[in-house]
Amino acid sequence: MSYARVLCVGLLGMTGHVIEVEADLSPGLPAVVLTGLPDTALHEARDRVRAAVVNSGQTWPNRRITVNLLPAALPKHGSAFDLAIAAATLAGAGELPGAALDGVVVLGELGLDGAVRPVRGVLPMVAAAAAAGLREVIVPLGNAREATVVPGVTVRAVDSLRRLVGFVRRAEPLLEPPPPEELPRPAGPDLADVAGQELGRYGLEVAAAGGHHMALFGAPGAGKTMLAERLPTILPELDDAAALEVTALQSIAGVLPPDGSLVRRPPFQAPHHTASAAALVGGGSGLARPGALSLAHRGVLFLDEAAEIATATLQALRQPLETGRVVLARARGTTEYPARVQLVLAANPCPCASPAGDQHCTCPGPVRRRYLARLSGPLLDRIDIRLTLAPLTAAQLTTPAGPATSSAEVATRVATARVAAARRWKTEGWRVNADVPGPVLRRAPWRLPTTDTALLRQSLDKGLLSARGFDRVLRLAWTIADLDGRDRPGRAEVSEAIQLRMGESHAR
Questions:
Q1: 176 — phi, psi (to 5°)?
Q2: Average pLDDT over residues 111-123
Q3: How far apart are CA 375 and CA 474, in angstroms?
Q4: Is 482 domain-assigned?
C-alpha cells in the first residue's frame, strides 16, 4: 500500500479543526513534499520525522513522499502534526497496519530521538475532536492530564514513536493518563491585610459583585496595588463552562499548571507598564497568540502605573472591553480569542507623585493635566468605578481598629449578590449586571421611576456623564441593590452609583 491517512487536529485561535494527514509514496527521487498551507514549524517536520523514524529502529522509505494536510485551504501551525505524519508515512510504506488508527486522533511533537513531546493547545484540540464525533485520542504523556478534562473521550498517552509502533503492530497497550494530582495552591492575599481605605474596599466589593471595571487613583503607598491584587480572592470560583474556556486559553499559551486540572480560580494578569500592544491584546507572526487580555478572561486584568503605559497600547483595550473578545487580523488569516475581563487601572495623580498628597505636589498644572490625559476620555468612559484614595495616616497604619473584614467574608456577600443577579437575568443568559445592555435597563420592566433617576438625568443633561456613562451608572445601581438585598434600586442606590462613577462615595 502506498497511501495512508491519519487524523490530527489543527487550531486557529481557540477553534479546532480535524485535519486529515495523508501520505502518498511513489517511485522517484527520494524527497518529502509537504502541502496544505504549513507554517515554518510544520515545514521543519520533514527532518524531525525522518530522524525520529530512523532513531526508533524503523526503516525510512526511500521513495518520493507527499504529505498533504486536508482541508488544504486551512492554514496549519505548530508541531502537533509530527506524530500523525510519522504514522501516516510508515503506514503508507506498509510498515504499519493503517486500519489500527482509523477514527483515532494522533497528536504530538517528535524529538530527533523519537521521543514524543508535549504541545500547546491539547485541551481545545481534544474538545474539537469530541465535537466532531471522534472518541479516541492519542496524546503526549505530558499532555495526558489536560486531555482527560474533556468528557466522553478515551485518552491514551504515548512517550515515544517506538511505543506507538508497538501499539499499532502488536496491539501493545499505550500508557494510561496519570491520575489527577491536586497540587497545593498557595493562599492568595487577604483583604484583611489592607489598612484603612474603606472607600477602596467598598468599591472593590461593588466591582466584584457586578463585574465592573475599576480605576484607582492616589499617591504612592495608598494601597491601590494591594486592593487590585485582592480582587480575585473575593470573586466566585469559575463554573464548568468558564473554567473550560480559561483552561483552554492557558493550554494554548503554554502556561497551564502542572496538574493539568481545570482552572477554577479567576485568573489574574498584571503585565508590566512597558508591555507592547501585542503582549497585551495578543499577536505574533503566523498564528496570533493570546495576550494578557485573553489570559485574564473571566478574571482580572490589572494595569499598574497606567499613565506610564504607551497611549496606543491603552487604546487597544477599548474595543475588547465593549465586545468581550479580541479579533486579530493578520495577512494569513483572522484569529479570535475571548477577552471578557474585569479591568483595574491604577495611576498616580501626577509625575512627581508626592506620598504626602496633592498639597506637596511640585508639578505645574499643565503637567498634571497632560499626565492623566494619557488615560483618554473614551477609555475612562468604559470604566464604571473611579475612586481617588487618600494617603494613609499614622493612626490607620499603627492603631488597631478591630478585626478587618477578610476576603472570605466579602466573597460571601459577593456570591450572594451574584446569585441574585444571575437569577434575575437567567432567561437572557447574562451572568452579572455589567453584562446587561443599557437599552434593557432603560425600558420596562427594568426602567426605574423618574423620581429615582432625576439626579442621573441631570448629570447627563449637564454633560457630566455620557450616554455610555448613564447606562453604566444604572448597572452599578442594580449591583448596589443586590449587595443590599433589595429587589430593585431606588434613589439612594442611584445616588451611590453616581458617586462611585464620579470618584467619591461614602464608606460603608
A1: -85, 145
A2: 95
A3: 23
A4: no
Domain encompassing residue 85 = 3-170
CA separation for the pair 492, 480 (Å, rounded): 10
Q: What is the pTM of this model?
A: 0.88
In a domain, 32, yes or no: yes
Q: What is the pLDDT of residue 362?
A: 77
- Rounded to the nearest angstrom, the gap between the alpha carbon of residue 349 and the centroid of all alpha carbons in its chain is 30
**75-84 per-position pLDDT tens digit:** 898 899 999 9
pLDDT (tens digit, 9 = 90+) per residue, 152-202? 999 999 999 999 999 999 878 999 998 766 656 666 788 888 877 888 999
Number of domains comprising the chain? 2
> Is residue 402 situated within a structural domain?
yes
Interatomic CA distance for residues 432 and 207, integer angstroms: 10
Helix (H) or strand (E) holding 301: strand 300-303
- Among the listed residues 122, 105, 115, the one whose alpha carbon sits nearest the alpha carbon of residue 260: 122
pLDDT tens sequence across 323-356: 999 988 876 678 889 999 999 999 988 887 766 6
CA distances from 325 to 74, 332, 485 (A): 22, 20, 32
Q: What is the CATH number of the domain that holds 195?
A: 3.40.50.300
